[in-house]
Amino acid sequence: MNDRVPADDVLVTADQRHMIHPLHFAADHASPKIFTAARGSMLRTSDGREYIDGLSGLWNVHIGHGRRELAEAAATQMQTLDYASAYAGYSNAPAIRLAERLVGLAYDNMAAAYFTTGGAESNESAFKFARYHWKRLGRPDKVKIISRRYAYHGVTMAAMSATSLPNYQTMFGPMVPEFLQVAPPYPYRWTGNGDPGIGAADAVEEAILAAGAGTVAAVIAEPVMGSGGVIVPPDTYWPRLRQVCDRHDVLIIADEVITGFGRTGTWFGLTHWGVQPDLMSFAKGVTSGYLPLGGVIVSKAMHDVIQSAPASEKFMHAATYSGHPVCCAVALANLDILENEGLVERARVQGDRFRAGLETLRSLPAVGEVRGIGMLAAVELVADQASKAPAKGLGARVMAAATERGLITRLRGAADGPPASGDTICFAPPLSTPEATLDRIVQIIGESIQAAS
Question: What domains appear along the chain, each with residue ranges and CATH number?
Answer without folding.
Answer: 9-63+343-452 (3.90.1150.10), 69-340 (3.40.640.10)
